[in-house]
Amino acid sequence: MQTIRGFRDILPEHISLWQRVEQEAFSLFESFGFKEIRIPVLEKTDLFARSIGETTDIVEKEMYTFSDRKGDLVTLRPEATASICRSYIQHKMYATDPVRKFYMTGPMFRRERPQKGRYRQFYQIDAEVFGIESAYIDSELIFLLNELFKRLGLTGLTAHINSLGCPECRPAFQRALLDFLGKRKQVLCENCTRRIQKNPLRILDCKVDSCQKALEGAPATIDHLCQACDDHFTIVRTTLERQGVAFMVDKSLVRGLDYYTRTAWEIKTTTLGAQGAVAGGGRYDGLVEELGGPATPAIGFAIGFDRLVEVMEQLKKNGQDPPLDLFIVALGNAAMAKAYHWSCDLNLAGFRTGMDSRGKSMKSLMKRADKLNASHVLIAGENELKENQLILRNMDTKDQTMIAIDNLVPTLMTLLTK
RNA sequence: GUGGGCGUAGCUCAGUUGGCAGAGCACUAGGUUGUGGUCCUGGUGGUCGCGGGUUCGACCCCCGUCGCUCACCCCA
Asked: Tell me, what's the ipTM?
């Protein structure tokens, strides 16, 4: 028996980094006024098809879609934004307060070919903001990501940002791009030839050499922005500069979901092989209305949790297991019976305490204590029980002292917490 | 969906021309009757991914298949 292809266990020895990331992220989000939201893993297929875009790779070939026992078409969520929008609309949140800031984490599912940094079940940390059109929110989200990565001690990341325009300026840009490409159709790769019809914007970030060549001198979205979009993008850039957030404007950054408008960005690393994006986000001012809600500006990002942890593991030597405060070496059945109660009491008193009740030799038990990285060992054998005293051994200094069994827990609290 | 690399002990990997299945680490016991890390000695542990074929004989050669991995594509 083993996991399904592209699915994996995250084992206890790796979990501490996950917890640390989660704690740092959530406390940072909370202090910026975000609230946690929890949404279902399964939604109607239609939600994703309408929001992400019928012709995107995600919808066309990567979703886990099936009909349930009644024949309803449902899909394991490939991302979180669509569901959060659905929730915002379904609960009419706009009626009481259109401005909402959410964060969440959880598994997403996409049936791609697995490789380094890419799994079929992967985890994202999301943040979304509804109801604010101001460019300061765009800056705030990018600033937030930058701050989080700083707190986690990450280096070697670069923020790529771009503006994709809005329904006002995009048609004109698309015409300009198609005009430009018209003369070079033959050079484009198979994919891009198809994209001319379906989604010309995507040609911009094609990685095929011949396409990159063909794009030299091609019009860029940021050169065709309408006044409002241009102003918006200017504020994003100048604000980030003023806050000291390093970024580069990347004209080829497009992103593969159709709902994005205006600001789009990705945080990239070079340490994960071909999977460069550790986080990505963008504005999606039309999506809430598209899904049946009132016209509501919105913006959000997703952090690739698995990728983030992998980058961190490469940067740091993975920390040891947290050490044990005390290991109880109990020799014989009588000692073991007592040790069990001591151990529980000490655990409740806040000590990380362990023992081994497999009836092993003293040498084995000492080895066990060493393996668990115990700072102290409490030795309880027949002699000690007779004397009503135990040996407390400091594993670093090898000092041993006798302590009374009466009032054991209070005694250890004073001895071990100094 | 398309390519490349790899599947031998818990882990990392050797395995000669086709001739008894190996090492290091880890685990375990002892050396030391009740004291850890270093050291020494012993021990446990294998469907050689799986199925078929060739052969007196297959970890090795052939065919098929599954899995892992990296890359393309796309994204987190």
From this structure: 0.82
A147 by Cβ neighbours in 10 Å (0-12 / 13-18 / 19+) ranks as middle
- As a rounded value in angstroms, the CA-to-C1' distance for A172 and B52 is 63
Range with the largest mean pLDDT of A115-119, A123-127, A380-384: A123-127
Q: Which of A319, A311, A303, A330 is nearest to A385 (CA)?
A: A330
Phi–psi pair at A406, nearest 5 degrees: -60, 140
Measured CA to CA, the distance from residue A40 to residue A398 in angstroms comes to 54
Buried b / exposed e over A106-123, threshold 16 CB at 10 Å, is bbbbbbeeeeebbbbbbb
* Pairwise CA distance, residues A258 & A150, whole Å: 30
Asked if residue A418 has pLDDT above 70, the reply is no
State yes or no: pLDDT of A4 exceeds 90: no
Environment class of A164 (CB within 10 Å of its CB; exposed 0-12, middle 13-18, buried 19+): buried
What's the mean pLDDT in A89-103? 97
The CB density around residue A178, as the number of other CB atoms within 10 Å, is 14
pLDDT given at position A183: 75
**Across A152-166, A288-302, A306-320, least confident range:** A306-320
Residue A272: pLDDT above 90?
no
CA of residue A303 to C1' of nucleotide B9, angstroms: 39
C1’ B14 / CA A248, Å = 49
Positions in chain B where some atom is under 7 Å from a protein CB: 1-3, 27-30, 32, 34-37, 67-76
Closest C1' nucleotide to A277's CA: B76
| Averaged confidence pLDDT in chain A | 90
Domains of chain A by start residue, with CATH: 12-169+225-315 (3.30.930.10), 326-412 (3.40.50.800)
Closest CA to A384 of A392, A374, A375, A376: A392
Nearest-nucleotide field for A367 (CA, C1'): B36
Q: What is d(CA A125, CA A117) in angstroms, rounded to the nearest whole number? A: 15
* Nearest nucleotide (C1') to alpha carbon of A362: B34
Burial of A240 (0-12, 13-18, 19+ CB in 10 A): buried
CA–C1' A1–B15 (A):
29
Indicate whether A55 pLDDT > 90: no
Nucleotide nearest to A360 (CA to C1'): B29
